[in-house]
Write a structure and sequence with these properties.
heterodimer; A: 81 residues; mainly alpha; 62% helix; globular; B: 613 residues; alpha/beta; Rossmann fold; Luciferase, domain 3; GMP Synthetase, Chain A, domain 3; 3 domains; four-stranded mixed β-sheet; 19 helices; disordered N terminus; disordered C terminus
Chain lengths: 81, 613
């Protein structure tokens, strides 16, 4: 992981904090929809926060292939570069 | 920000400074005709004589595409020629991913001009949801015997995978379709006695049932909606974030407005899900007068609007329709409270009832009246199948009453009956099966005579599968019949159990499924599947106890609480919980308890129950 990936991961963790009500420890391999106690509406809310923070759009097809935090970091890297 | 990507060389309306201008609400010099047409193409030919039409907003609420009806007609004609020129035979089915945008509209209406049957398909909206989506689309393609599938470029891989699984050879992206030559094609639009489209709103994800709608049904239903249900006027402007693959989005907010030359402003469903308050902001900016949503949409918007409400003006909103799920009075009250500052008038709420099998609408409440809530005695409702008004003492205790929203009168030309199990007509406040008859009924489930025969009765009525009662000539829907749980001779509506369970923290709407399984002694044993993301055993057991206790409190029955992983519960393609699907997956062991240990209150396990049934 490059420094930039690290930064993105920490930023994502911070954005997730308000949604992570059970304080699940966030790792790269954490499954966003199943490991965290987040309902589907809150997931969309979180996705909006990510989009606004990084000023990117995450299309639905990309979202459907995003499972883990690591996947999400890659999506952000790809779409900000 | 001019529209650039409209294939087919069509551009949006531009003003002199290059910015997009949305279509106006009224056609100067063109008389508004409310659905007096015999086919969809007749309706579009007429609407194309004016300058009203569709406007599409970006996820951040910026106007992205403008498609007046005259431009839609040209776009549809060229698209229809391209479809026929690609080798499709008249009458064959064209599946199309129903993203909210000009391209979907061109394919849907292009099929109407070309005599092809469009089948709107959903798109994926879930994080990590690819596999489930591909499976669902494959099921629909098979059921429709589709000859072609058309998709946006983003979902090309997904749709290709589904098409391969379903044996559909021709997959086109919108870009590929629009790059095909139009050729020398003579279009033969659907005639008034032919089919119109197939709607996938029914059946489970694995066995979807395609509702075949005829030109006669769609023109009858849109005419009734425009003239009687909504009483549309030239000053109306509609707004919709509803998905176009669902009957309320497609019929209510695409086909009906077009058949009445009404302008519609669209926000896509995923955009709404991300920013629910945009719905209200755009309605305020554009002074829209008509919008519809299921209860949950009002709930979401009311909770997320926050301080933004101060800047909104919703005083012009005259029809805030509710449909698509059980209308919930508490949600409507919350919305009215949170939006009080905006001038929103709660008399705008318009409860209604309908289903894809009857094109869309069956009943509408009175436009001029505030919505009416009938509060009935819960004990009597369960024991006697009668909806008896609760007395003032019981009304103080929410556990002793049930509140139902009154959904109005049948549309003219449509007949609704409420009957007991033997087919005898029931009177006021007697709960029975709801049947409907009239010109809006579907032709049947596409190439599925068994499923069609199950609902189409010899007397010409269709069994809606819903239970309800009459109240002063208006209908009240109490729930689905087929999911009814019979427990010790009592009728228990699974919705009652699920609603109660979903109030337990941290559960949400859609996290519970209740159904009956036959136990060893031939009695109905009630199983409640509860989706949760908890892992800790103590927390799991605590949740199990709470659920069991709330079920006991609200329904007075012992149940088996099975805690299952998130996303275990199956939903129909229209987003309704499939209790039958949940039950069969539970009995087959596909859905199983998270915790390794046996549930504390389980009288018998799923295997024993399966063996007994």
């Amino acid at each position: 992981m490059t420094a930039s990936d690290d930064e993105i991961f920490s930023a994502l963790c911070e954005l997730l904090t308000p949604f992570n009500s059970n304080n699940v420890e966030l790792k790269l391999e954490t499954e966003i929809s199943t490991d965290l106690n987040i309902d589907s509406v809150s997931v969309m809310d979180f996705v909006m926060e990510v989009e606004d923070h990084f000023d990117i759009d995450i299309p639905l097809n990309v979202l459907s292939d995003t499972h883990t935090m690591k996947d999400l970091v890659s999506v952000v890297v790809e779409r900000t570069s | 920000m001019r529209s650039e990507i409209m294939p087919g060389g069509v551009s949006g309306l531009g003003s002199s400074d290059g910015t997009l201008q949305y279509t106006p609400r009224t056609n100067p010099g063109l008389r508004q005709v409310l659905g007096e047409f015999s086919t969809l193409t007749d309706g579009l030919d007429y609407a194309a004589r004016g300058i009203t039409g569709f406007n599409f907003y970006s996820p951040r609420g910026v106007l992205a595409h403008v498609l007046p009806y005259w431009e839609l007609r040209e776009f549809a004609l060229s698209t229809g020629r391209r479809l026929i020129n690609s080798g499709l035979k008249r009458g064959s089915r064209v599946a199309v991913v129903a993203e909210t945008g000009p391209e979907f509209m061109a394919v849907f209406f292009g099929c109407q001009y070309a005599g092809l049957v469009p089948c709107p398909m959903p798109y994926t909206m879930h994080i990590g949801g690819r596999e489930a989506y591909v499976e669902r689309i494959a099921g629909m393609l098979r059921s429709a015997h589709a000859s072609a599938a058309v998709t946006c470029g983003d979902l090309e891989d997904h749709v290709n995978a589904a098409a391969a699984a379903a044996g559909v050879d021709l997959v086109l992206t919108h870009e590929q379709l629009q790059a095909l030559p139009e050729g020398d094609v003579e279009l033969e639009p659907f005639r008034a006695d032919e089919q119109a489209y197939i709607q996938y709103s029914s059946g489970s994800t694995s066995h979807p049932k395609g509702v075949l709608i005829t030109q006669r049904a769609i023109t009858a239903n849109t005419r009734s909606i425009l003239q009687h249900g909504l009483k549309i006027r030239p000053i109306d402007r509609a707004f919709s974030w509803l998905p176009l693959y669902h009957d309320m989005g497609l019929v209510g907010f695409c086909l009906s407005p077009m058949m009445g030359q009404v302008t519609v402003d669209y926000l896509s469903t995923p955009s709404f899900a991300r920013r629910p308050a945009l719905w209200l902001k755009l309605m305020s900016d554009n002074r829209c007068t008509v919008a519809y949503s299921p209860s949950f949409g009002y709930d979401l918007a009311a909770r997320r609007v926050n301080a933004a409400a101060d800047d909104l003006d919703l005083s012009q909103w005259r029809i805030a329709g509710i449909g698509g799920d059980m209308v919930r009075p508490d949600v409507l009250n919350l919305f009215s409270r949170n939006l009080a500052e905006t001038g929103f008038d709660s008399r705008a709420f318009l409860p209604s009832y309908g289903m894809a099998e009857s094109t869309l609408a069956i009943t509408f409440a009175d436009l001029e009246e505030p919505f009416r809530v009938d509060v009935v005695d819960r004990a009597q409702y369960k024991l006697s199948r009668r909806a008896v008004p609760a007395n003032d003492v019981k009304k103080l205790d929410p556990e002793k009453v049930r509140s139902f929203v009154v959904c109005g009168r049948p549309l003219p030309g449509h007949d609704v009956q409420i009957c007991d199990g033997a087919g005898n007509l029931l009177g006021d406040r007697e709960i029975g099966h709801v049947r409907v008859k009239g010109p809006s009924l579907m032709a049947g489930y596409f190439e599925n005579p068994a499923a069609t025969d199950d609902v189409m009765l010899d007397c010409g009525f269709m069994d809606t599968g819903d239970m309800g009662y009459w109240l002063d000539g208006q209908i009240v829907i109490t729930g689905r019949a087929k999911d009814l749980i019979l427990h010790n001779g009592r009728n228990i509506w699974p919705q009652d159990i699920e609603w109660a369970v979903e109030q337990v923290a941290p559960l949400r709407s859609g996290d519970a499924a209740a159904f009956a399984v036959e136990s060893a002694d031939g009695q109905d044993a009630v199983v409640v599947l509860v989706q949760c993301r908890l892992k800790d055993e103590l927390e799991l057991e605590s949740l199990r106890r709470q659920v069991s206790s709330v079920v006991h409190r609200t329904s007075g029955i012992e149940c088996e609480v099975v805690l299952v992983p998130p996303k275990s519960l199956p939903f129909t393609s229209s987003g309704k919980l499939s209790r039958a699907g949940a039950k069969s997956r539970f009995l087959s062991g596909d859905i199983a308890e998270i915790a390794a240990r046996k549930p504390a209150v389980a009288p018998v396990g799923p295997l024993e129950l399966a063996a007994a049934s």
